[in-house]
Amino acid sequence: MKLIRCHIENFGVLSDFDFSFAEGLTTICQSNGFGKSTFAAFIKAMFYGFPRTGARNIVENERKRYDPWQGGKYGGYLEFEVQDVSYRVTRYFGKTAAKDTFSLLDLTNRRPSTRFSEKLGEELFQLDADSFARST
Q: CA within 20 to 30 Å of 118's CA: 12, 45, 81, 99, which one?
């Protein structure tokens, strides 16, 4: 699996942010407060969405923690490649999980894909979201 590029519409401190991943290992060297941890959380959210929780504490509730500071549409897309097929996962988040949207496009064949579901991360990596977070 290879990450290709992403666009963050709004996610925490990041707004209208585009990033292309280099071949091999990609490093991000930016100052404190730039949004490196937020960027990592965005990638996880693209693969797994947000966990359903009733927690009101911003530390325990990722949906609240990454709610855009500047308002606006909340989410973006991530393009990746698996077995020589490129995909674009797009997720936008609402105040509750019921208002979240998910789509997966097969960019190689230019059509919507049903190869993976909203449980994309579990299907690709055979890891739950917590295990993924601990491994990245």
A: 12
Q: What is the pTM of this model?
A: 0.91
Burial 106-127 (b: 16+ CB within 10 A, else e): eeeeeeebeebebebbbeeeee
Q: Which residues, in sequence order, are bridge partners of residue 2?
A: 81
C-beta atoms surrounding 9 within 10 Å: 17
Task: Count CB atoms within 10 A of the CB of residue 13.
Answer: 16
Could you tell me which of 17, 110, 54, 46 has the C-alpha nearest to residue 9?
A: 17
Q: Are 115 and 103 in contact (CB under 8 A)?
A: no
Q: How far apart are CA 16 and CA 117, in angstroms?
A: 26
DSSP assignment, residue 36? H
Tens of pLDDT along 52-80? Answer: 877 777 778 899 999 997 878 899 999 99
